[in-house]
Write a structure and sequence with these properties.
Layout (H helix, E strand, L loop, with lengths): L2 H8 L5 H22 L3 H105 L16 H14 L3 E5 L3 H13 L2 E6 L2 H13 L6 E5 L2 E6 L2 E6 L10 E6 L13 H6 L3 E9 L5 H13 L3 E3 L8 E6 L2 H7 L1
Parallel strand pairs: 1-2, 1-6, 2-3, 6-7
Antiparallel strand pairs: 4-5, 7-9, 8-9
Helix pairs in contact: 2-3, 3-4, 4-5
Bound molecules: S-adenosylmethionine.
């Protein structure tokens, strides 16, 4: 590549008109200089005037060009703003559409949940209605066996249902235990005490809640059963089983008991912690008579199912008897002869 063409490449690209103006300016400058040097002042002045005219025309052209560029810039800016605003509008519309769709979905979901709740509520209500004749029959049978000396406290809810009570009292009446231990006092304590009054026997009932223990004591006294049944305050304390602590009745409340031949496990309530009733058998096994009956309430719940599975595996001589009524499980305990001999 020649030196000339290299210089031409480095120069900024000129339009035809710019090149022509540059050439004319160059010629006029050269002509003015030559005329002045050769002593032709008139020609030099004429050429200088022409040069001035060319410069003025060039400046005017430049201003026009700049004005055009500025107008183009303003128009490009306006276009850009319009495009950005349009995009913003589309974005807001899309977000709004999504929001409305999500709102619709939320509404549909809430309606579906409400429908499911209605159905389950209706099912629960209808299962309670279906249970009414059963509970009514049980109530009639309960009151046929004796006449209470004062109004009986209510059954159901936290207390055993009439159907639960009916089988429980039947077991006590037929097996005639000498010492009944009840975990969780209440209405059941009064019913049990009435049966034990007929069959001969004693009831010890533990309650973790001093308030409910007091209420049961009052009920027993009103019915004249306080010589048959005793309610003991037994606050929940940690008891260790296989390296885990469970809140359970203070073992001190059991310390003087032995040969217990009937147990009702109806506490502590599930609200006191997971596996709330699991410690029961571990804590009372050595205080049981060689043969005992254990009624375990709420046996259908997962924690109670797990407790029963673990107990029957752990304690030899513990079997499930089967039940006639109610929500409880009836377990039979028969201490294996070798262990019974060691206890004797
Ligand atoms: C399942 S309840 C025991 C009920 C008792 N075995 C009966 O059938 O009447 C277990 C414990 O819950 C507490 N309790 C009793 N009635 C209650 C109630 N209405 N609300 C909350 N807790 C109650 C008492 O401390 C009781 O020992």
């Amino acid at each position: 590549m020649s030196k000339m063409s290299r210089v031409r490449r480095r120069l900024p690209r000129l339009t035809g008109r710019q090149a022509a103006v540059l050439t004319v300016t160059g010629v006029l400058c050269t002509g003015t200089a030559a005329a002045a040097l050769l002593g032709h002042p008139r020609i030099a002045t004429t050429l200088l005037a022409l040069l001035g005219g060319v410069i003025v025309a060039g400046v005017l052209l430049l201003f026009r060009r700049l004005a055009t560029v500025q107008r183009a810039g303003v128009s490009a800016q306006r276009d850009l703003r319009t495009t950005v605003e349009e995009m913003q509008r589309r974005l807001v519309a899309a977000v709004e559409r999504e929001r409305l769709t999500a709102g619709d979905r939320h509404l549909e979901l809430a309606e579906a949940i409400a429908r499911v709740k209605q159905v389950t509520d209706r099912k629960a209500a209808s299962s309670q209605l279906l249970a009414l004749p059963r509970e009514f029959e049980a109530t009639v049978q309960l009151f046929q066996s004796f006449t209470p000396r004062a109004p009986m406290p209510s059954s159901g809810d936290f207390a055993l249902n009439p159907t639960d009570l009916l089988e429980l009292l039947h077991l006590i009446r037929t097996r005639k235990p000498r010492l009944v231990l009840e975990l969780g006092s209440g209405t059941s304590s009064v019913w049990i005490a009435y049966v034990l009054e007929q069959t001969g026997g004693r009831l010890i009932s533990l309650d973790h809640d001093a308030g409910y223990a007091g209420r049961t004591r009052t009920a027993l006294a009103v019915h004249g059963l306080d010589t048959i049944a005793e309610v003991r305050d037994a606050a929940l304390t940690p008891v260790g089983i296989d390296g885990r602590d469970y809140p359970w009745y203070d073992p001190e409340a059991l310390a003087d008991l032995h040969d217990i031949d009937f147990v009702l496990i109806d506490g502590p309530p599930a609200s006191t912690g997971a596996d709330a009733r699991y410690p029961a058998l571990h804590m009372i096994e050595k205080r049981l008579a060689d043969r005992a009956t254990i009624v375990f309430d709420d046996a259908g719940r997962p924690d109670e199912q797990a407790a029963m599975a673990a107990w029957t595996e752990r304690f030899d001589g513990l079997t499930r008897e089967g039940e006639l009524l109610g929500r409880h499980a009836v377990l039979a305990f028969a201490r294996p002869p070798a262990l019974a001999a060691a206890f004797a």
